[in-house]
Amino acid sequence: MSLATWGNKLHSGEKTYPLVQQRKRWFIASAILVIASVALLLGKGLTLGLDFTGGSQYIVTDVANPTEEIAQDAVAQIDSTQEPRITILGDDDVRVQLGELSDADQQALTAALAEGYEVSTDAVSFDQIGPTWGAQVGKQAVQALVIFLLLVFAVIALYFRAWRMAAAAILALIHDLLLTVGVYALVGFEVTPAAVIGFLTILGYSLYDTVVVFDKVKENTAHLTEQTRYTYEELANLAVNQTLVRSINTSVVALLPVAAILFIGAFVLGAGTLMDISLALFVGMAVGTYSSIFVATPLEVALRSREPRIVEHTEKVLALRAGGGSDVVREDGTVRVGALTPGEHLGQGAQPKRKGRK
Prior knowledge:
Elements (H helix, E strand, L loop, with lengths): L2 H10 L10 H21 L3 E2 L1 H4 L1 E6 L7 H11 L6 E5 L3 E6 L4 H14 L7 E6 L1 H30 L2 H25 L2 E2 L1 H28 L11 H11 L1 H25 L6 H30 L3 H16 L4 E2 L5 E2 L22
Parallel strand pairs: 1-6
Antiparallel strand pairs: 2-4, 2-5, 3-4, 7-8
Helix pairs in contact: 1-9, 2-7, 2-11, 4-5, 6-7, 6-8, 7-8, 7-11, 8-9, 8-11, 9-11, 10-11
């Protein structure tokens, strides 16, 4: 079966997967991943860049022999208490990061690096960031994230006129953020302002995918109580299935260039400055696709399933289905449909039927 045929069957409801009905399974899997991410954050922690912690940074360019040992020896000559973070950038650049240095030590380390790598002192650039500036950058990053989440909640709640959808979307975003940050803690990549931008970008991507699914849920359930063929859970599950192929295609297309940046640009070509943002984008997009399918909508259904209106309608549908209820045309023209007849599938008659005018 081709992808197009599979997508058409999913959209029509002829073929469906019980993604929402099996939500407990996805919730358990997500809970395990979130707990593991939090454990990594508390145990191993994040490798914060100088923009957040403050310190000194040297970049040595046009190096013939870019090895870490030379930089380690140079730092040990000036201050043996320092534990430098050394990164090879590309084929001939070396970045050395360490704590704050006095003016005399700065000049001495510049000379030591130039001598060790056999370059002139002009090829050694220096930059120092104070701890106050680093703390301010970290505070602003947290503020930006909080403001983003509040605005997302308000916009979704107003658009869908349902706070439960907004709550489900926010929880899915927090889920995506924790998993992405957990991967950062696991691999030890440096967290820089570029990585923070990557985090905000993937949250926007995840939100976009979630809103598309929610919009289909809203469309499918617009006339929920005017029919008794499907429950809210079933119509929401139909919406996830109808947008499944689109979500997969969009994610694959988005991940391909990001994967090129991460695996080819960073690892093969050695563009180390791209690793922080590309990892955030790659992991975040993959996790965002997962959450929009397996977390956001199932969570929204779990929240809505306790509403008295939804509970009453679900009980009515299940009772009619168990008793093999028949179609009854009401005075307002809507049709109550009981059990599915042979040959029918979930996508047929999702909207209430109405009598034609004579």
